[in-house]
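Running this now, will post back.
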Amino acid sequence: MIVAIDDPADERVEPYRAIRERDLRGRGGRFVIEGEVVLRVALSRGLYPIESILLADNRLEVLRDALATCPEDVAVYVAAAPILERIAGFPLHRGVLALGRCDRGGTGAGEGSAPELPASALVLALAGIANHDNMGGLFRNAAASGVDLVLLDETSCDPLYRKAIRVSAGAALTVPFRRAGPIASIIDDLASVGFAVLATSPRGEIEAAALRAGRRVAVVFGAEGQGLPADLLARTKTVRIAMAPGIDSLNVATASGIILHRLRLGPE
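Update: finished.
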């Protein structure tokens, strides 16, 4: 359902107005997709319904194949680039926007922080991740490593924030996640259903190179700087990545890529 838009005040594209301001205020059950790569992921493998799409007119033909997969009730609005920029409120070089819908509690099988998962499963648990670039990188690594579920504590930022989705290259739309309360409760719940829980720390007892895949493993990452609380580290097995002298740790997204990769490897 392709609809031409020639007036930036058209009420049909009202949800796309002043996107950056609404990023700060929130937009309820909606999230914003930006860019061709992310839109293609959302249409082909995304977990959430697409409400509408807004394109610069020079992007329509490039995306015809992807748009052919849209449900019939999804409107595709098309506007000249200057009109599109006036709607969005900033220069939109990619020329591709879309709106999706999701309960911010997340998606995934079961309820709570220990949902039903396969007998062999890998879970990523995040505590206090407040940087959207890091959140996007964590989800991209989770997708690459076949993570079954991401669990977020109540202090972590929104994986469906526009920048987090973009940095994740769309992985935030394909990896199930769930908000699950305090990180201590998340760890207890995972342990109660048979998960071996690993917590990351620069002074961890296990070197990342020694990690091997397991049937049910969860790995916990905290925010850069303060890391995970000492009482939590005392209750779990801890993992470190060897560093050159004088270097304390890696960026949390980079560290997650190394550790998740090790956890997907079989015995050598």
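The two ends are 53 Å apart (CA to CA). More later if anyone needs it.
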